[in-house]
Design brief:
By secondary structure, the protein is of the alpha+beta class. Among the domains are: about 50 residues, Membrane-bound Lytic Murein Transglycosylase D, Chain A, CATH 3.10.350.10; about 100 residues, Immunoglobulins (Immunoglobulin-like). About 30% of the residues lie in helices and about 25% in strands. The protein is built from six helices and ten strands; from the N terminus they run H-E-H-H-E-E-E-E-E-E-E-E-E-H-H-H. The strands form three sheets. Strands 6-3-10-8 form a four-stranded mixed sheet. Strands 5-4-7-9 form a four-stranded antiparallel sheet, with no helix packed on it. Strands 1-2 form a two-stranded antiparallel sheet. Helix 2 crosses helix 3. The radius of gyration is 62 Å and the shape is rod-shaped. The termini are far apart.
């Protein structure tokens, strides 16, 4: 009996010694064992996503990623007790950043084409001096307001390559072909007895392929008009002159006959 009691006491002392030793020397975790957590990286569109794992909760996810639980729920529209229904593999939005700019297509060099050589062509110009009867600077009736002859016409370009001087024609326009492109000065001098009804000098731009017409008007002056409207000369004709001569001869014959009768 004493032997069993001694063994029992020895066992109690051994257990007490082990307890005291563990209490005096606590067991430390192996410092070489580390748990790594990889912070989620932003997607190309700037979103930062977290994939739910086993035993994850809204609190653990928010603590792990340094955001509040309210922010986590707000970003993912989790309301009420929605945190109790997280699924493994579910992606949660942790935040957004500005997306990185994507490189655009490389620019390619374009060849510079030589500028075309300007083409200096020719054109045609026609000048007309007409009888502007009513003085309105317009040809109202081509059968009445006819071309005038006897006027002086001048056509010159700005570079001195063209210098034309001639008389206007009663048959119509004076036309000049194969004139080089340029700005031309056209002048007109009306015939004697007429007054100009338009500008007598104008500048005209002639380009290649153009056919340009320039009209000048002239109205008979007051002196010439008085001569034309003189009632003493307006209705004169050769027939009236012949009749007048016959009457004069008849009267002369009657006078001679009367003198002969008196002598008898």
């Amino acid at each position: 009996m004493k032997k069993q009691l001694s063994l029992y006491l020895a066992g109690i002392l051994l257990l007490s010694a082990v307890f005291l030793i563990r209490t005096a020397f606590p067991v430390f975790a192996n410092p070489n064992i580390q748990v790594y957590y990889y912070t989620p990286t932003a997607q190309p569109d700037g979103r930062i996503l977290y994939t739910v794992k086993d035993n994850d909760t809204c609190i653990s996810i928010s603590l792990l990623n340094n955001i509040t639980q309210d922010q986590l729920q707000l970003l993912n529209n989790i309301e009420g007790d929605g945190c109790l229904f997280l699924r493994v593999g579910q992606e949660l939005l942790l935040g957004t950043v500005a997306p990185e700019p994507t490189a655009g297509p490389l620019s390619t060099a374009t060849s510079i084409l030589p500028s075309p050589t300007p083409f200096n062509g020719t054109g045609e110009m026609c000048v007309l001096l007409f009888n502007d009867i009513n003085g309105n600077a317009l040809i109202d009736d081509e059968t009445v307001e006819l071309p005038l002859s006897g006027g002086a016409l001048s056509v010159k370009d700005s570079l001195g390559r063209v210098s034309i001087n001639e008389q206007t024609k009663q048959t119509g326009e004076s036309c000049f072909t194969d004139l080089p492109e340029d700005t031309y000065t056209i002048s007109i001098a009306v015939p004697e007895g007429y007054n100009a009804t338009m500008q007598t000098t104008i500048n005209v731009l002639l380009t290649a392929g153009d056919i340009t017409s320039v009209d000048f008007g002239a109205q008979i002056s007051g002196a010439g008009e008085a001569i034309q409207n003189d009632p003493t000369t307006k209705n004169q004709s050769p027939l009236l002159g012949i009749l007048g001569g016959l009457v004069l001869l008849f009267g002369l014959g009657i006078g001679i006959y009367a003198l002969r009768i008196q002598k008898k």
